[in-house]
Each structure stands twice: as structure tokens, then as C-alpha cells.
Here is the input.
Amino acid sequence: MNVGTGDKGITSLLTGERVPKSHIRVEACGELDELGSVLGALAASLSAGPDTARREIAWIQEHLLHIGAWVAGGPKAPPAHAVDVLEKSTEALEKALPPLQGFLLPGGHPSAAWAHVARTVCRRAERRVAAVPSPESLPFLNRLSTWLYALARACNQANGVAETLWKP
Here is the structure.
């Protein structure tokens, strides 16, 4: 059996630098990869919801790959316009939703539940990316978690599932 260098806990960044798999850049890339996978599960669960949600999720997954390449030592930061795209999409989702009346418990329709899982994975990825020097991707990840919250609410609404308010 051949033993690869990864078997010894070492991997390469895009720069060619060899680092331990516990390196913060590798950790951040892993979190971004997990987020992309959870977004795939979310897209697969959409039976009803905003018409553009699947396309937007695919665009987000592509953008996460760009962020991952940058985090792994790629030459340029992700484009700044992506933050504006997410903000406009979030505003469009929120316009069609009733105002929040308090804190919501995550869940409801399976698509909404997946959106909430994606939101929490996104927050974890954001924390990992924040530890990488010059984290130009943080505004995108921050807006993405807000978009996912709005999408979860929109999925519940589209599927006729009432939101559950937290009762402290």
C-alpha cells in the first residue's frame, strides 16, 4: 500500500507550501467546503420557495470555491460586488416576509431547517476565515448567514409552515 504525504498529516496550499492539516488555512478551507455541501443539501430540499433560490445557491457555492482558493493562498481576494448581490437578494426575500416578532426557533419545513443548518455552518466558517490574515471574505460570509436566515423564513412561508417563536 502506498502512503501519501496526506497520510502523515501534511498537505499543500495553493502556493505549494507544505503545512499540517491542522493549519488555520486548511481548517478554514474545510469549513468552506462543508458549507458548500450543506448548501447542496439545502438546494436539493427545495420543493417550494423563492424561484431564484437554487440559482443563487449555485452562485454562492461557486463563490465559496473562490474564497477557498484565496484562503488556500490564491493570488487574489474574491470580488467585492458579491456582497452587494447578497444584500439585494436578502432585501428581496425580507420584503415578502412578515416583520419579525421575536426570536425564532430554527426548523419548520425541511428546506427551512437545512437553511438554518447552513446558516450555523456559515457562521463557523466565518470564524475560521477570520483567523486567516487579511480576511477580505468576511463581509460575504457575514451577509450570507443573514441571507440564509431570510431564506429559511421564506421557505417556511412558501410551504405554509408557521414560524415558531421562542418563548423565554
User: Anything to note?
Assistant: Helices lie at 24-45, 53-71, 81-95, 110-130, 138-158.
